[in-house]
């Protein structure tokens, strides 16, 4: 089996709904990111053997295999193919897995894995209009929305509204601090927006002045007298991210520095009603495959789809908040669905390098009860 390494990882700033990135087509946004990725890596695009991209709402400007369209738009040779996939919120994490598997087995040596989502231009669920779940499915499972699932998780794990709002306020505080300290600068590609030459340099989501009190004033969304609000849930966002993966042998032959090794990949199915509980078994499976324990991991990224997810995950795993989502998460920074997996991987790579950590683990809950888990190792020298 070939050793799979990460050579480069970048992302756009994440734009808030109807914010600066709403002026940019998603296929163009991802194309610009592909250009920047190979430029930073000093790689000829002709070396790329596939572009694998996550995108959830594949309709309108995101239809027709956006990975291939973006590669062509980026000026990659016509011989470079592209494929787009949907594993819900973990789509671009799954893209990283598929790319790693192709490299590990020897089918390919150089693959770009990433994702893109413009939730402003292509609204969530727009690809589901006019459809319902079939009777055979609903006779077996209670199919509810993710917000209702989050309410049930909060109830099952004894999480109060104050717990959720406290976690959300901390997410904003961490994201604002990371932004002020320039922690995201190396991983970010500034994006030109509008016709006046304006440039978006930073994530638009983090809100100064977010406190438990301000969050506590918000109304619940999914359940009367419930706990989930717009303030303790992930933000609707726009953005893109991409990771350049290679076999170690190929990277060294090209004179490129392997920065991380992909140690393990896991994907699980979980209760489709509770839906958001998959990150726990995905975490344990990824650790087992890597031959590591929870204590070996320096940094964890668990997507903040809703505040109950990282909170119950910490209760189940025993991991402290000091190691989890250290620069904030989707509650503050946003959740551009198909891009989130690659975005979080990009942030994990750069933060491990900044902090000197060795091992990182990424886990993301996904619609209909699934989750991916990935373990990476920083390489010395």
Topology, please?
Blueprint lengths: L3 E8 L3 E2 L9 H16 L8 E5 L11 H8 L8 E4 L5 H14 L5 E9 L16 H4 L7 H11 L4 H20 L10 E3 L4 E3 L11 H5 L20 E11 H6 L6 E10 L9 H12 L8 E4 L5 H10 L12 H4 L6 H16 L3 E8 L3 E9 L3
Parallel strand pairs: 3-4, 3-5, 10-11
Antiparallel strand pairs: 1-8, 1-9, 2-8, 5-8, 6-7, 9-12, 11-12
Helix pairs in contact: 1-2, 3-12
Family: Belongs to the thiolase-like superfamily. Thiolase family.
Protein name: Acetyl-CoA acetyltransferases
InterPro entries: Thiolase, Thiolase-like, Thiolase_AS, Thiolase_C, Thiolase_CS, Thiolase_N
Q: In words, what does this structure look like?
A:
With 381 residues, the protein is an alpha+beta fold. The protein has a domain at 263-375: Thiolase/Chalcone synthase (Peroxisomal Thiolase, Chain A, domain 1, 3-Layer(aba) Sandwich), CATH 3.40.47.10. Helices cover 33% and strands 20% of the residues. It is built from twelve helices and twelve strands. The strands form two sheets. Strands 1, 2, 3, 4, 5, 8, 9, 10, 11 and 12 form a ten-stranded mixed beta sheet that branches. Strands 6-7 form a two-stranded antiparallel sheet. Strand 6 (191-193) and strand 7 form a beta hairpin. The longest helix is centred in the middle third of the chain and has 20 residues, at 161-180. The two termini are 23 Å apart. The model has no long low-confidence stretch (mean pLDDT 97).
From the 3D coordinates, which CATH architecture of one domain would you assign? 3-Layer(aba) Sandwich
Query: How far is it from the N-terminal to the C-terminal residue, by CA?
Result: 23 Å
Total of helices: 12
Helix proportion: 25-40%
């Amino acid at each position: 089996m070939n050793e799979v390494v990460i050579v480069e990882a970048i992302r756009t700033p994440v734009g808030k709904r109807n914010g600066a990135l709403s002026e940019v087509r998603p296929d163009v946004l991802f194309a610009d990111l592909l250009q920047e990725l190979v430029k930073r890596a000093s790689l000829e695009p002709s070396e790329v053997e596939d572009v694998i991209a996550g995108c959830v709402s594949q309709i309108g400007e995101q239809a027709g295999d956006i990975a291939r369209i973006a590669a062509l738009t980026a000026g990659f040779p016509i011989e470079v193919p592209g494929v787009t996939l949907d594993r819900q919120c973990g789509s671009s994490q799954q893209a990283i897995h598929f790319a790693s598997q192709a490299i590990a087995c020897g089918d390919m040596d150089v693959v770009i894995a990433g994702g893109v989502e413009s939730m402003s231009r292509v609204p969530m669920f727009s690809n589901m209009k006019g459809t319902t779940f079939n009777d055979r499915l609903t006779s077996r499972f209670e199919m509810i929305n993710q917000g209702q699932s989050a309410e049930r998780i909060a109830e099952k794990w004894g999480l109060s509204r104050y717990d959720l709002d406290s976690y959300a306020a901390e997410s904003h505080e961490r994201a604002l601090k990371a932004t002020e300290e320039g922690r995201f600068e190396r991983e970010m590609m500034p994006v030109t927006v509008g016709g006046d030459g304006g440039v978006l340099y930073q994530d638009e989501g983090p809100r100064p002045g977010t406190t438990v009190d301000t969050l506590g004033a918000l109304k619940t969304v999914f359940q009367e007298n419930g706990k989930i609000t717009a303030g303790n849930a992930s933000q609707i966002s726009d953005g893109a991210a991409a990771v350049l993966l290679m076999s170690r042998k190929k990277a060294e032959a090209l004179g490129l520095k392997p920065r991380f090794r992909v140690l393990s990949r896991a994907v699980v199915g979980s209760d489709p009603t509770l839906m958001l509980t998959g990150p726990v078994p995905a975490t344990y499976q990824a650790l087992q495959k890597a031959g590591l324990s929870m204590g070996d991991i320096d940094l964890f990224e668990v997507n903040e789809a809703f505040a109950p997810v990282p909170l119950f995950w910490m209760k189940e795993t025993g991991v402290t908040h000091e190691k989890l989502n250290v620069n904030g998460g989707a509650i503050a920074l946003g959740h551009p669905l198909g891009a989130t997996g690659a975005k979080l991987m990009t942030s994990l790579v750069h933060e491990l390098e900044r902090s000197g950590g060795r091992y990182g683990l990424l886990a993301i809950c996904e619609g209909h009860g699934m989750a991916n888990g990935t373990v990476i190792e920083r390489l010395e020298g």
